[in-house]
Amino acid sequence: MNNKITNAQQVNLRLTMLSLAVIVSLTGCEQSAPHEVDKQQSQVNNAAPINQTDEQQLELQAQKIQMQHAVRYTAMPQGMMHESVAMPRSELQLQPMPRTPIDDVVVVSEQERENYLKSQQNPVKQVGTEPVSTFSIDVDTGSYSNTRRMLNMGKLPPNDAVREEAFINYFDYDYSAPNSIATPFNVHTEMATAPWNEHRQLLKIGIKGFEIEKADLKAANLVFLLDVSGSMNAPNKLPLLKTSLTMLTKQLDENDSVAIVVYAGAAGVVLPATKGNDQQTISAALDKLAAGGSTNGEQGIELAYQIAAENFKKGGINRVILATDGDFNVGTQSIDKLKELVASKRKTGIALTTLGFGQGNYNDGLMEQLANIGNGQHAYIDNINEARKVLVDELSSTMQIIAKDVKIQVEFNPQQVAEYRLIGYQNRVLANEDFNNDKVDAAELGAGHSVTALYEITLANAAHKQIYELRYQSKEDKKLATSNELAFVKVRYKQPDAEQSKLITQAVATPKGELPLSQASQDFKFAAAVAGFAQLLKGAKYTGDWQYEDCAKLATANKGIDTFGYRSEFVQLVNNAAAL
Question: Which end of the chain is more exposed for a tag (fewer CB within 10 A), N or C?
């Protein structure tokens, strides 16, 4: 084999040296002076014919230059500049640069870049040791519409993206509303066999808020806080946001006011408080919005609250509506500080509603938390129909609060119930002592809103319990031995302008005989199907052999009156999940 280097190899090596010299001069990392680069280029151009030893030396020299100017890049949050740091030469060894195999490349999916709060299913509780269950209501529906977006894209959602209560409460149920706002809601209960386990029962507890016609809504002081950062530059983000808010403003009149605050790298007012019937001015301000820059959400929130305070309507609706993908990545990044800001402004009578948009970097966890703390609602807008549902059809419940700090406490009778499990509301569970403590914050109920909670229970006389009975527990309780109460439901709430709570109570009678699912109302069976679907998406820990096909069959048979097609759409989502 010929040990002499060919002319082609000489040219390649010279080009390698030249390329390295040029790269070094351009990177700015330990940049060589111009005369040094010229010197390196001259050495390459004037090189004599190279033998094998010369070739090895040249390769070593090229390798040395490359290693001396190796750069270590520091990953920074999206929207910020990357910093590069030259590695000290003492840390480097003259050895061939390693090649990265294709198998080592990690591909991060869009879902993995989205942020969701941890959400594990509630465990089974024994009534003998924990007879009381306490939680705050929750009217957020964002989890359902966000999951719908994923399923329509052909992807199953992450477990933590699924919140059972948001699925259940996405749909309306035929609860009767109270006749007077003095008692802001009615309590409804129903029970039947669980569709996924014949040995369990479902107890449905529903409350329905007093209904207010749109024409009778209080005057509104609305401040739109809009994210126009670069992360919002997608068709399902800023353009959909502008269309959604245009739909909302068309519901307003001269007694209402709208201001628009935008934020990207900095925050600013693009529309001062303007009468709600000045559609041309409001629409023109929305149309001019364009996306660009990084996100400083905290600065925007502070400015929005300032504008809301300046235009505060005493006795009216005062609300900041934050519309974003939640990608807060510049400015103060402390989530706790943001929460404190929102909580402090809540006490002044200014609520916060959050509307989520987009995918890929969507921060559902932050959006939900801010809405919970801000006495508002969190919704996810995945299409124009959802925008109409939240901002037009449900305007009264979205805007006007009829009861605040609404808490539910259920005490189960150990003579009738052995076990129970609350389906959903994981991040709304309260300590039992919090129920009577008016200092503890809870969620608000909007006009006409309905809230539904489902408990899966095991009756005391059931043969198949999930937890063994306690060995040393007394089974004697003469006081309750003859009680026909299954459970006792208590609901505590405050009037919107009050600080002292009121109490509503209702006993749940023990059924006489079996309650087969077939004899339950259509609403009950549909709600059971929805709850089952959410549990299947979260891993089917408690649903046994029940499958998506069973869920679709139950929902299809119990769609009832489906004016807007939401229940039919649900069935299609179940079928999509089954196919995935």
Answer: N
